[in-house]
Design brief:
This protein is α/β, with parallel strands linked by helices and about 260 residues long. It is about 40% helix and about 20% strand. The longest helix is centred in the C-terminal third of the chain and has 17 residues, at about 225-240. It is globular and about 60 Å long.
């Protein structure tokens, strides 16, 4: 089967000069070669611009710099950076990549093949191999706790979608863009695909190397911030679905609400 569709890989970067070259190289090394790589740097101060200048002559790569003052809320900065690139990209299929993560070399080919054979799928997440440090890593499984209301939703570097999907999402999410700032774009996309668009697919292969540095520090599991973000996630789903889901008697929601009130 010949696959010729253009793929857009969108890389966002902030002060990740030591990882940036690795992320870009993992895209250039893909077995699927009909792609463009768009990079947005959000006012880095660590030499990231010098790394990007190495790719001046590569026709597959375009990079852009944020000229505005940072918002300093990580979730909003990430969303704005990705939106900037989404407005510029030309690919039918779009892949997200945070600059401290990277792809295995056959990731794009395997996922585009699914899109080409399954027309009803508009959103695909693959599983990450998570590196916490040099001595600790895990292969994430495609599952959540059986008591959880939520399916497993992968981080941004593990997700892709059709261009038509993101246009539909942006329109639906417009009134909620600046609400619930701790509910990150990757989670919103997964929620919209799974609960609203019914176009969700989780590919059971670990095709992305992921490093959860900033997220794990701010939202350690079962901390107050972790429960607060979980409650905001319910509020977000309730609003984007226009009240379609009733959480009143949901065990996960009730327990989350009680524990957050205790920790608060």
């Amino acid at each position: 089967m010949k696959i010729k569709n253009l793929v857009s890989i969108l890389i966002i970067n902030y002060n990740n000069a030591k990882f940036l070259d690795r992320a870009i190289s993992s895209c250039l090394g893909q077995t699927y070669n009909n792609l463009e790589i768009l990079i947005f740097d959000d006012n880095s101060e660590d030499g990231s611009k010098n790394v990007l200048k190495k790719y001046n002559k590569n026709k597959k790569i375009k990079y852009f710099f944020n000229k505005k003052k940072k918002v300093n809320i990580a979730a909003i900065d990430a969303k704005n950076s990705y939106y900037n690139l989404i407005s510029r990209c030309k690919g039918e299929f779009i892949f997200l990549l945070d600059s401290d993560d990277y792809f295995l070399k056959n990731k794009i080919f395997k996922i585009v093949k699914i899109y080409k054979t399954e027309n009803k799928i508009n959103f695909i997440q693959n599983l990450p191999k998570i590196f916490f440090n040099k001595n600790k890593s895990i292969l994430k499984k495609n599952e959540n706790n059986f008591l959880s209301f939520w399916p497993y939703l992968a981080p941004a570097s593990c997700i892709s979608f059709r261009k038509k999907f993101i246009n539909k999402f942006i329109k639906s999410n417009l009134s909620l863009e600046n609400k619930y700032s701790d509910v990150w774009l990757d989670f919103r996309l997964g929620v919209f695909s799974y609960f609203i668009d019914n176009s969700f697919f989780s590919f059971n292969e670990n095709l992305t190397i992921y490093q959860p540095y900033g997220e794990s520090k701010k939202y350690p599991t079962f901390s107050k911030n972790w429960f607060r973000r979980r409650l905001d996630s319910y509020k977000y789903l309730n609003q984007i679905s226009k009240g379609k889901f009733n959480f009143k008697f949901n065990f996960d929601f009730i327990l989350t609400n009680i524990i957050y009130k205790i920790l608060k």
